[in-house]
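User: What would this chain look like folded?
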Amino acid sequence: MAVQETRVITKFLRERPDDSWTLDAALANGTYSMIDTLFDRAPEDIVKLVTDSGLRGRGGAGFGTGQKWSFLPKDVYPRYLAVNGDEGEPSTFKDHMLVERDPHQLIEGIVIASYAIQTHHAFVYLRGEFALGAERLGAALADAYARGYVGKNIKGSGYDLEIVLHRGAGCYIAGDETGLLSSLEGERAMPRIKPPFPAVQGVYAAPTIVNNVETLSAVPHILRNGAEWYAAMGVNRSKGTRLFSVSGHVERPGNYEVELGITFRDLIEGLAGGVAGGRKLGFFIPGGASSPWLLEEHLDAPLDMDYVQSELSATTMLGSGAVMVYDETVDPLLVAWRIAKFFAHESCGKCTPCREGTARMLVALDRLAAGSGGEGEVAILRELGEVVQLASLCGLGQAAPLSVRAVLEHFPGALGLQ
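Assistant: Here's the prediction, encoded as structure tokens.
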């Protein structure tokens, strides 16, 4: 039986591709219908509903959404919601699609989440390069204000919510939740030391919840269909559906929404059509450039966040859901070099291990790729990789050595090693 997508948050935009971003189309699809009864429910009941659904963050960390909401300190106001739409992880393009093609679904999710955590101010931090997304989301917000779904006294409830669209300047580190908050405040996007965590002290030093675009897009469906409906999909603690951005040497690259628990083989060979041109698989990266690589022997592993992180021999993660596929003709050393170049360029420079270590690793890879390196450069990569991963302040530095480690583990011949 052929593998099928399980479309929840992408169902509407696939069925109505010509105008899915417009208010008239969204209303015809039932968007905003949950707001009519939202304020009859207690905020804590909505938090419990989302917790019971098993929804976990879709930005990469995979933390329980309802659990994160519950971490806000009681009776501490003001508090804020920040929507992470920066999406700077290489080859990730799911949030981009959701913002461009179904912005009203996202706005409905923001309203529900804001009411649940009892904030009156939400920010959507959108990557600066997403010009069409910013245009459509801005228009959608204007329409939502005009119809009374956002703004003062929503639907006569007495509840007010202001949503601000903030466009970033295009740096990877703004995808880190604390880097995003710094950028929102007008500072350079640099990570902050934790604790305190954003739920305690975030934007403007006030309690702040940071949720991903995909995460909030799922919230209206959970409210509409119930926690049990959502929890019935998926596997183990990985509940519901998830969007995977498949790119590289496949016949049908694109975004696929699938029920968690299917295998990488189902995704790559089934939905994406397998390796292009009839060639063999060389390796694939399962969760964006920040995740360690996997081989053909891992294709039958399930898309289960916990399983991938703890059970695979090459421990990795689903991360941002960007699956990059490389065929047998690709030189893994050059892929590692290109990823290292990206991280060296995107390092914000705040902490020394990352600032200096990523640059030095790139130099070593430059020499190896040019054929002028040797055992000395490999030794540097081993030592530096450990230091950078352990001592860096945020996820950029912690992830930067992983592609190098993958080459050392799986493809030592590419480095001239036996």
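The two ends are 43 Å apart (CA to CA). If you want, I can go into more detail on any region.
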